[in-house]
Amino acid sequence: MHRFMFAVATFAVASVASAACPDTDFLDYSAKYGYVVSPKAGTFYERRVATPTVSYNEITGEYLMLFSTLLPDADYKIGDYASCSNGGVWGLGRATSTDGVNWDVDDSAPAILPEANTAHWCATAHPTMVYDKTDGKNGTYHVWYKAEQIPGYCGSNPTP
Known about the structure:
Elements: E1 4-12, H1 29-33, E2 50-57, E3 62-70, H2 73-76, E4 90-97, E5 104-105, E6 123-132, E7 140-148
Antiparallel strand pairs: 1-7, 2-3, 3-4, 4-5, 6-7
């Protein structure tokens, strides 16, 4: 039995230039523009990009995207995760945009990683976020995500 929980994280925002979204016809968006973020060889998100969430910072004029990614086994093996139901370790990637069409992915490392011996040992995935412009100079993103742990980690299996 796997346990699932949702966790909360908060991100501070740096200042960036402002721009407006150039197109409001989203029905044929991927056919017109292609995918805005795709897996990229040699990065932590080379295997998969999934379940994105996007929020707009009206103070800085920047869009922030968080997305789930199945992390490369060789670089992100966290203890013994063979019993994880998702077949590997999932983390969250981060991308920014000033127009909502062209995105810069932070290739350096996942924004949020699972951690051994925690409630999110197997997965940190399926994010959603809300931007709060009243919190701090540039506002704050409040992020919720799914966390999954290895079966039996808590030492008991309570009945829901």
